[in-house]
Amino acid sequence: MDPTTSITLYAGTRDRISALVRDLDPAELQRIVPACPEWTVHNLVSHLAGVAADFATGNLDGAPEPEWTAVQVDARRDRPIEHVLDEWALASHAVEQVVTSGTTSHPLVCNPWVDAGTHEADLHGLLGTGRPPADLALATVTWVESYEPGPLTVITPDGTFHLAGEAPTAEVRTSTYELFRALFGRRSAAQIEAWSWSRPEYAAAWSVELPRLPQTAQPLTD
User: Fold this and answer.
1) Nearest CA to 138 among 122, 120, 116, 160?
2) Contact 34, 94 (CB under 8 A)
3) Which of 31, 152, 157, 203 is the most buried (most CB within 10 A)?
4) What's the rounded Cα separation, in Å, for the pair 81 and 22?
């Protein structure tokens, strides 16, 4: 994705999340996010601020593994949410400069909106405040396809995508948003099997390389 579009998507996501959580009361900030059941709302925003800080400084060793994200959350656990949001804003501007400068080709750094947009949808699932814009979901699906091409054909109203799969003839229809959520493990096996498969047994073609929910088998609604 071109740098200008990338930073526009990222800035929009940060602005929406910041507006959403800045005025939450302490009890709301301590609610568990169903899509990230080890994190509260405060933890999730701490992760986003920490990602921006690490991207800006080039601290990518271990990204995006759980140990890397745990450090981000722990370092900000006791900070007021407004301080965390202010840090995220400052670090985000630094990330935008890195993206536009062309000094890195790291796919996560060049596309910070992918992780942030996924977590925006996670917060929507808890707080019910609105899905991320459709263009963000479509951009994410297109981005993933560029890294995971394969024989699994997924047809959505916005286009046809070819993803890594185990059966060369597998075909399925779903919405772009459902595909966006499933690609990052936010849909259970049962939810994926409920998509419109050309033959039911083809549901097994959903690649083992593409995650299902790692923490729970419960369906998510967002």
Assistant:
1) 160
2) no
3) 152
4) 7
- As given in the structure block, the two tokens for residue 36 are 């990230």
Read off the pLDDT of residues 144-180 as tens digits, 9 standing for 90 and up: 888 767 788 899 999 999 887 665 578 899 999 999 9
Residue 222 is encoded by which pair of tokens? Answer: 């967002």
Write down how long the chain is. Answer: 222
Nearest to 116 by CA among 37, 10, 3, 7: 10
Amino acid (1-letter code) at residue 158? D
DSSP-derived 3-state class of residue 165: strand
pTM as predicted: 0.93
Contact of 220 with 34, CB cutoff 8 Å: yes
CA atoms within 13 A on the CB side of 40: 17
Q: Name which of 219, 209, 139, 216 is nearest 176 in CA terms.
A: 139
Dig out the tokens for 67 from the structure.
């140990």
**Cβ contacts of residue 205 below 8 Å, gap of 6+?**
151, 152, 165, 166, 167, 170
Contact status, residue 157 vs residue 175, Cβ threshold 8 Å: yes
Element containing residue 156 per DSSP (H, E): strand 152-156
Over residues 55-74, the pLDDT tens digits come to: 999 999 999 999 999 999 99
